[in-house]
């Protein structure tokens, strides 16, 4: 798979001018196009008005903070991958932010190499894949997973997956019946190795299951292998007593 994210459009929302300029510079050196703004309301306006492939978002911002940007963007159906960069590094902060709808989380101070790697990975997961998505739609027990539109459906109804949620479901479904480890998922989708503190995959599986359950309450699709990873295998849900 190509590592290039060339041509991707990145919206940077960061109020510290020094960091904002440095991030923009490094992404432009990678051939990405950047728009950089310094407050949350302005960031949201840009996200609504123009198509971006990635948003790099600070949390502590004047006006609307980063959590507000994520919440409103997702509520409005803006699914673009959001890479959060924040000095707030505790696990509850990270998990809460991913649950709100961010796609990845980078703790300040970070290296520019690390940021570029995260942004590249986010670009690969995007709604307009820069690397052509191959493969036909997968249909299993009323669930249709369609890479050509980066969306999945149950009985014809959209699951409203974000591109990252879609890539996770698609990868698991391609490996149907096999337990895919957290490390494999994190490497393939987020471009980094799994560490024991990293809850990213678990948060995304939970969000995916919530959306599947809403459309398909009597069936489960993603099974957990405790301590290892996840397996795609449709099953009837055990009746609740
Ligand atoms: Ca800030």
Summarize this, please?
The protein has helices spanning 17-29, 40-49, 66-75, 91-100, 112-125, 163-174, 182-190, 200-215, and strands spanning 9-13, 33-37, 54-58, 82-86, 104-107, 138-140, 143-146, 151-154, 157-158, 179-181, 219-225, 229-236. The protein is of the alpha/beta class and 241 residues long.
Strand order of the largest sheet: 2-1-3-4-5
Strand fraction = 15-25%
Task: Outline the biggest β-sheet.
Answer: 5 strands, parallel
Total number of helices: 8
Q: Describe it for me?
A:
It is a single chain. The protein is built from 8 helices and 12 strands. With 241 residues, it is an alpha/beta fold. It has a 5-stranded parallel β-sheet, with helices on both faces. The protein has a 4-stranded antiparallel β-sheet with strand order 6-7-8-9, covered by helices on one side. Strands 10-12-11 form a 3-stranded antiparallel β-sheet. Helix 6 crosses helix 8 (200-215). Calcium ion binds at residues 15-16, 58, 60-61.
């Amino acid at each position: 798979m190509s590592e290039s994210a060339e041509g991707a459009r990145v919206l940077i929302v960061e109020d510290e001018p020094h960091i904002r300029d440095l991030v923009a510079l490094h992404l432009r050196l990678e051939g990405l196009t950047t728009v950089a703004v310094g407050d949350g309301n302005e960031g949201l306006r840009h996200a609504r008005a123009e198509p971006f492939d990635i948003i790099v978002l600070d949390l502590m911002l004047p006006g609307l903070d980063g959590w507000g940007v994520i919440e409103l963007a997702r509520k409005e159906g803006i699914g673009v991958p959001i890479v959060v960069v924040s000095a707030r590094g505790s696990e509850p902060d990270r998990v809460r932010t991913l649950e709100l709808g961010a796609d990845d989380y980078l703790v300040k101070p970070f290296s520019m190499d690390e940021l570029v790697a995260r942004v590249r990975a986010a670009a690969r997961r995007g709604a307009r894949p820069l690397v052509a998505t191959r493969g036909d739609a997968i249909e299993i027990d009323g669930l249709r997973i369609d890479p050509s539109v980066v969306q999945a459906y149950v009985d014809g109804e959209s699951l409203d997956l974000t591109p990252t949620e879609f890539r996770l479901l698609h990868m698991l479904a391609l490996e149907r019946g096999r337990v895919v480890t957290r490390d494999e998922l994190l490497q393939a989708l987020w471009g980094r190795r799994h560490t024991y503190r990293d809850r990213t995959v678990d948060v995304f599986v939970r969000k995916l299951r919530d959306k599947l359950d809403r459309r398909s309450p009597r069936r489960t699709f993603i099974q957990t292998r405790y301590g290892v990873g996840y397996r795609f295998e449709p099953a009837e849900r055990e009746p609740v007593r």
